[in-house]
Design goal:
Elements (H helix, E strand, L loop, with lengths): L4 H10 L62 E5 L5 E6 L5 E8 L13 H8 L9 H10 L3 E6 L4 E8 L3 H13 L8 H15 L3 H14 L11 H6 L2 H11 L5 E7 L3 H11 L22 E7 L5 E9 L8 H13 L5 H9 L6 E5 L7 E9 L3 H18 L3 H16 L5 H13 L4 H5 L1 H6 L3 H11 L5 E7 L1 H11 L4 E4 L16 H18 L8 E12 L2 E12 L3 E10 L3 E10 L2 E5 L5 E3 L2 H13 L14 E9 L5 E8 L6 E7 L5 E8 L2 E13 L2 E11 L2 E12 L14
Parallel strand pairs: 2-6, 7-11, 7-12
Antiparallel strand pairs: 1-2, 3-5, 3-6, 4-5, 8-10, 8-11, 9-10, 13-14, 13-25, 14-15, 15-16, 16-17, 17-18, 19-20, 20-21, 21-22, 22-23, 23-24, 24-25
Helix pairs in contact: 2-5, 2-8, 10-13, 10-17, 11-12, 12-17
C-alpha cells in the first residue's frame, strides 16, 4: 500500500485552504524578546532624553580601565607516558574531593568511509553498552553506585570518553574507561537501541531549519568527494553492521593513538601505578593512517535553496574555506572575526542586520578550528520576504571587512573582550584538563593555554586588516537558504541569482552505493531461502498478472493524524494506481488518485485537477513499486538483482530471522528483508526513501486464494507513520486497463 505519507498529505492540503498550516516561527519568542522592556531614546520633538532621570549625571560610577592581557597561571601539570604508549596529563587540585578523567582517541568523523557516515558516533555510543567483562547493565550499575557520570562522544577529529566521580571512587572511573576503550564487545542486541537514538537525531534535522542549513552548507561547500561534505543519513546509519564497529575500533583504538587527562584530588605517584596496572592490558597496535582529501575548488558563487514549505523564516548560511588552527594568522583572525560577527551584539553583522535594518535578532560569523583547513561561515535568519535583502547586507559587511578590515578602536575592543573572556573559562582543574587535551590534539601544549590571552593582545590593527584581506573572499563563496521556496524564489529571480533548488527531505549530497562484497556460497543459500519463502507465500505470486487491495487506517505526518481509505490496483509488469480518501481536519474528506505506468505518472488532487507527477516523485513511486511487500519476494528472480546474505538476527523471544539485502539491477532500488526462519514469512522490510529509511512491519497473515497475505501493515519513515488494515484482497481480478490512463478532465 501507499507508504510515502508526505506526498499524500501535500496533495490533500494543497487543494484546500482549511488544511493545517504551521505559522510558528522556527525561532521561538522568549520572555523579554522584542522591545517592550527596552529603553528607548526620547522623541526629539519633545526634548529627546530630558525625561531620563540619569541624563547629565556626573556622580555615576565610571567604567574601570581595561587591563592588558596577562599570562594565565595554570596549576602544576604532570606528564608521563605508560609503557603501552598512552600519554597522560595530570592536573592536581585538592579544592574538591572529586576526580575527572577524559580519554581522547584520535579518530572521529574524519575517519569514516563514505558509505558508513555516522560510524564513529555509533562506535562511541556502543562503548557504554558492554565489554568483554561487563554488560550494559553492569556498567550502568557501577557508575550509578558511586554517583558518577560516564559518557562517550565522537567529534570531527576525535572520540572523547569521560568519567567523573568522588576522588575515593576514582578507581571505578579508571576501570570503566580502560575496559570500554580496550575491550568493547559491541553486543548485537544493543545495536538497535543505539541505532534508533542516532536515527532520531537525523530525523530531527528535518524539523530544524537551523540544523538543515548547517548540513547543506557543509555539503555545498565541500562537495561529495570530500569527507566534510558527507552528511550522516538514515541510509548510512542503517548500513552499519557489528563488523563495521569492530573494524573501526581495531583500526584506531590504540593506546599509542590516545591521550588521557586526569584532574582533581589525586595522589600522582599512586595514580601512575594504578594507571599502569589498569591500562596495562590495552596493547599497542598499528593505527590506520587518516585519509587526506584535496581541497575542492571554489571559483564562483553557488546558491542552494532548500524548500521547506510553510516556514515563515529563512535560515541563511554564507561562507567559504577558512584556515588551519596552526595558521600563523590564527590570532589575527580571532580579532577581525570578533569584529565582523564573533562578538555577538557588538559585531558589525548584528549591528547592521538587527539594529539598523531590523532583519533578524542576530547574526554571527565563525571559522572552524581544526588540524586541517576548515570553513568560514556567516549565520543568520530572517523573515521569508527579507531573504535576499538580508543576504545582501551580510555580503556588504563581508566585502567591507575584506577591503578595509577592522578599525583601531574595534581591534582594541575585540582584544579586551577575547582576552578577558578567556580567563574566566578556567574555574576548575577539570576545565584546565579539558582545554589541555584539546590543545594537545592540535599539537599545542600548556604554553599555548598560558599565553593565549597574551598572544591575542599582541595583535595590532594592521596585522588584523592584512589577515582579513588575505582570508576573506567576497567573490567566491556559497549560500544556503532554508525556507519556503514560494516566498524566496521570486526574490532570487528578481535579483538575477542562479541557484539550485532541493526539497528539505531530499538526500543531502550524491547517493552512496554500498559496495557489499559478494559471497557466492552465502548468496546461493540466500537465494534458496528466498525460493522457499516464495513457495510458502504461494506460487501464484510469482506469476501474478493483476492485484487489487483495499485498506483502511491512519496516516500521520508532521504530527497530523489522518483517517484514510486506500484502494490499490496493480497490473504486471509496471502499472500501479492508488485511490485514496483522506479525512482532513477542518476540510472533510478529500479524494486523491495517482497512477504510474513505466516511468511516467499522473496525479489528481482533491479539487479535480490532473497533473503530471514530477520526475522526482516518479522516481520515489517507482522504487516503492519495486519494494512492494507482495512482490519483493520475486525480485531475486529478476535478471541482474544482487542478493546479499546478512547475519541472522534474534529477537527478545528467541525467534531467529534470516536477513537478506536485495539491490536492483539498475542499482537504484535496494531493500533489506527480515524473514522468520521457521515460517519463512516476511515480517519486516527496510529501504531508503527520500533520504530516510522506511521500515514496514507486516503481521496478521491470512490465506487469500492460496497466497499468504499480511493484513496488518505499519510503516515508519522519520516522523511519518502509516498504519493500515487490509480489508479486501483480489488475486488476478479482471481490470479495465484504461484506469491507468491519464484522465482527460
Amino acid at each position: 500500500m501507499r507508504r510515502n505519507v508526505s506526498l499524500v498529505i501535500a496533495l490533500a492540503i494543497a487543494a484546500t485552504s482549511c488544511g493545517p498550516k504551521s505559522t510558528t516561527p522556527v525561532t521561538p519568542t522568549l520572555p523579554g524578546d522584542g522591545d517592550a522592556n527596552v529603553a528607548k531614546p526620547g522623541d526629539p520633538k519633545t526634548g529627546g532624553d530630558k525625561d531620563d532621570p540619569w541624563a547629565g549625571r556626573k556622580d555615576l560610577l565610571e567604567t574601570p580601565p581595561t587591563q592588558p592581557p596577562a599570562k594565565l597561571d595554570l596549576p602544576p601539570i604532570e606528564r608521563f607516558t605508560l609503557d603501552n604508549g598512552l600519554e597522560v596529563f595530570v592536573v592536581k587540585s585538592d579544592r574538591l574531593p572529586v576526580v575527572s578523567m577524559q580519554l581522547a582517541i584520535k579518530a572521529g568523523r574524519a575517519d569514516e568511509p563514505r558509505n558508513r557516515v555516522g560510524l564513529a558516533s555509533f562506535v562511541a555510543s556502543m562503548l557504554t553498552k558492554g565489554t568483554k567483562k561487563r554488560s550494559a547493565l553492569d556498567i550502568a550499575k557501577a557508575i550509578d553506585f558511586v554517583g558518577g557520570a560516564l559518557g562517550a562522544n565522537a567529534s570531527y577529529e576525535a572520540t572523547i570518553t569521560s568519567c567523573s566521580a568522588l576522588a575515593k571512587d576514582g578507581g571505578t572511573c579508571m576501570g570503566l574507561l580502560a575496559d570500554m576503550v580496550s575491550a568493547p564487545s559491541f553486543p548485537k542486541d544493543e545495536m538497535p537501541k543505539v541505532r534508533d537514538a542516532l536515527l532520531t537525531e537525523i530525523r530531527n534535522r528535518l524539523d530544524s531549519a537551523d540544523a538543515l542549513a548547517d548540513a547543506h552548507f557543509q555539503n555545498l561547500l565541500w562537495g561529495d568527494e570530500h569527507v566534510r561534505g558527507w552528511i550522516t543519513s538514515e541510509a548510512t546509519l542503517a548500513a552499519i553492521t557489528r563488523d563495521d564497529l569492530v573494524a573501526f575500533h581495531k583500526a584506531y583504538y590504540s593506546p599509542s593513538n590516545a591521550m588521557l587527562a586526569v584532574a582533581g584530588d589525586v595522589d600522582v605517584a599512586k595514580l601512575k601505578k594504578d594507571l599502569a596496572k589498569t591500562f596495562g592490558a590495552w596493547k599497542k597496535t598499528k593505527v590506520k593512517a587518516r585519509v587526506t582529501y584535496p581541497l575542492p575548488k571554489l571559483d564562483r558563487v553557488k546558491v542552494r535553496l532548500v524548500d521547506k514549505p510553510r516556514q515563515t523564516q529563512t535560515h541563511i548560511r554564507i561562507g567559504h574555506f577558512g584556515i588551519r588552527h596552526d595558521d600563523a594568522r590564527f590570532f589575527e583572525t580571532l580579532v577581525w572575526n570578533y569584529v565582523l560577527g564573533g562578538g555577538a551584539f557588538s559585531s558589525r553583522l548584528t549591528t547592521v542586520i538587527r539594529a539598523e535594518h531590523g532583519k533578524a535578532y542576530g547574526a554571527t560569523s565563525n571559522f572552524d578550528r581544526n588540524n586541517e583547513q576548515g570553513a568560514f561561515s556567516i549565520e543568520t535568519y530572517t523573515r521569508s520576504a527579507e531573504t535576499v535583502a538580508t543576504v545582501q547586507l551580510a555580503l556588504e559587511q563581508l566585502e567591507k571587512m575584506q577591503k578595509s578590515g577592522p578599525t583601531d578602536a574595534e581591534v582594541a575592543d575585540a582584544i579586551s573582550n577575547i582576552a578577558g573572556g578567556y580567563m574566566v573559562r578556567y574555574e576548575s582543574s577539570e576545565s584546565v584538563a579539558s582545554a589541555l587535551l584539546a590543545a594537545e590534539l592540535h599539537g599545542f601544549g600548556e604554553e599555548y593555554l598560558e599565553n593565549f590571552a597574551v598572544r591575542v593582545g599582541k595583535v595590532d590593527a594592521a596585522a588584523a586588516r592584512t589577515a582579513a584581506k588575505e582570508l576573506l573572499d567576497p567573490v567566491n563563496f556559497v549560500i544556503v537558504l532554508v525556507g519556503d521556496a514560494s516566498a524566496i524564489e521570486p526574490q532570487l529571480e528578481k535579483a538575477g541569482w542562479h541557484y539550485e533548488k532541493v526539497r528539505f527531505n531530499d538526500p543531502i549530497g550524491a547517493p552512496v552505493v554500498d559496495p557489499i562484497k559478494p559471497d557466492p556460497k552465502a548468496e546461493k543459500a540466500a537465494r534458496k531461502f528466498l525460493d522457499e519463502a516464495l513457495a510458502a507465500k504461494g506460487k501464484k505470486i510469482a506469476k501474478l498478472k493483476t492485484l487489487r487491495m483495499e485498506a483502511k487506517g491512519k496516516l500521520v505526518a508532521q504530527g497530523t493524524p489522518l483517517d484514510v481509505t486506500i484502494k490499490r490496483t496493480f497490473a504486471a509488469p509496471d502499472k500501479m494506481r492508488v485511490d485514496l480518501v483522506v479525512d482532513i481536519p477542518g476540510a472533510g474528506q478529500q479524494a486523491i488518485s495517482y497512477a504510474l505506468t513505466g516511468g511516467k505518472g499522473w496525479q489528481r488532487s482533491p479539487d479535480g485537477n490532473v497533473d503530471e507527477i514530477p520526475a522526482a516523485d516518479v522516481e520515489v513511486l517507482t522504487q516503492q513499486r519495486w519494494h512492494d511487500p507482495e512482490l519483493i519476494l520475486t525480485r531475486h528472480l529478476e535478471k541482474g538483482t544482487v542478493v546479499n546474505a546478512l547475519p541472522d538476527e534474534k529477537d527478545a523471544d528467541g525467534k531467529v530471522y534470516v536477513v537478506i539485502n536485495l539491490v536492483s539491477a539498475d542499482k537504484l532500488s535496494t531493500a533489506t528483508l527480515y524473514l522468520e526462519k521457521k515460517t519463512k514469512r516476511l515480517v519486516q522490510l527496510a529501504y531508503p526513501e527520500s533520504g530516510r529509511v522506511t521500515v514496514d512491519v507486516l503481521s496478521d497473515y491470512k490465506k487469500v486464494d492460496g497466497v499468504d497475505i499480511a493484513h496488518k501493515r505499519i510503516s515508519q519513515s522519520g516522523d511519518e507513520t502509516a498504519e493500515l488494515q487490509i480489508e479486501k484482497v483480489e488475486i488476478d481480478p479482471e481490470i479495465d486497463a484504461t484506469i491507468f490512463d491519464k484522465p482527460t478532465k
